[in-house]
Prior knowledge:
Layout: H1 2-12, H2 17-26, H3 29-46, E1 50-53, E2 55-60, H4 86-99, E3 103-108, H5 116-129, E4 134-138, H6 144-153, E5 157-159, H7 167-173, H8 179-192, E6 195-197, E7 199-202, H9 209-222, E8 228-231, H10 248-261, H11 271-276, H12 280-286, E9 291-292, H13 299-302, H14 318-331, E10 335-337, H15 344-349
Parallel strand pairs: 1-9, 1-10, 2-3, 3-4, 4-5, 5-6, 7-8
Helix pairs in contact: 1-3, 2-9, 3-10, 4-5, 5-6, 6-8, 9-10
Amino acid sequence: MIKKYINKLYETNNTTDEELLYILDNLDVDSKEYLVEKSHATRMRTYGNKVYMRGLIEFTNYCVKNCEYCGIRVSNKKADRYRLTIEDIIDCADIGDRLGYKTYVLQGGEDPFFTDEIMVEIITKIKDKYPNNAITLSLGERSYESYEKMFKAGADRYLLRHETATKELYEKFHPGASFENRRECLWNLKKIGFQIGPGFMVGLPGQTNKDLVNDLRFVKDLEPQMCGIGPFIPHKDTNLANEIGGSVDKTTTMLALIRLMNPDVLLPSTTALGSIDTQGREKGIKAGGNVVMPNLSPTSVREKYSLYDGKICTGDEAAECRLCIENRIKGAGFEVEITRGDNIAWQTKKVIKNDVKRTFTLEGDY
Ligand code: SAH
Ligand code: SF4
């Protein structure tokens, strides 16, 4: 029965919620292997054996939000806060470009210091210097107008995990935050024209397979270009410090299911996955992941951007990270790809808005 459902997923990229739940409830070693095989075959059909690199710049760990699981939540008074200056950020972009990264991911807490004006300045400066490089933002929830200003300044993509598509679970872990607003932000980003990346954590305390089916369905309905999935990992200075984190096995299962349901999606094998298992990122790639995000942040701040315990690569210079990750990708039998790496369905749409600073030609980039 389970292989029949996996075949259906492979052939039609969809199935019912009941069948998804059946797969999650009944997966054993043999059927997991089959699931991963089908996921791999799907990625080979869409992106081949390529794995895309993105340079991650963690530019602020100030945050006004209080997500229960996160080490930089506002109520963690032990967090050693920092902000990179605009010059620091441009330096990271310079290093990234020299190392061959054609996409930057600017990620941070929800930090009111980075107003729309400041973000527009940062985006404009990077785009003026590197018009062919893509900018991905990951700054949490902002207004429609704010997203629009950053898009018009030249930002291309936005990562905003929905975290969990189950309202009760969302509210349990996000005191004072709105489940509806988070989702609304994703629809807004999509409407504005960003390539969007929702995503969720695997193994949140109290999360069931039914909740994970909700996540799979939400992602499918949203039709995103990217999707970020990683295990929940407890942070020592949060209320969830003593909880059990998500597993590699469950995370790779979810990666494989997301790949089967969304063949075109750009799917990172995350640092969090690499942090709970030395071979975590390789396992994520084999299960259908096709993006890695090596760190470009200055080593002096890496430890401080501490969302969870045991984060890897905090001491390595950007160039070392680049080499390490490249060797890992090759070692797992895949090929490093250092172009901008836009979503393939997106490329065929060839969306170029004249009012937006996008000087590259889509055809020339791939
Ligand atoms: N502030 C922004 C971006 C930075 S947080 C935002 O929240 O969208 C980026 C992601 O880190 C979050 O979406 C969350 O899924 C993940 N994260 C935070 N704490 C974590 C933890 N303890 N374990 C695993 N992932 C975590
Ligand atoms: Fe802030 Fe993001 Fe951490 Fe939530 S997950 S506390 S929004 S940095």
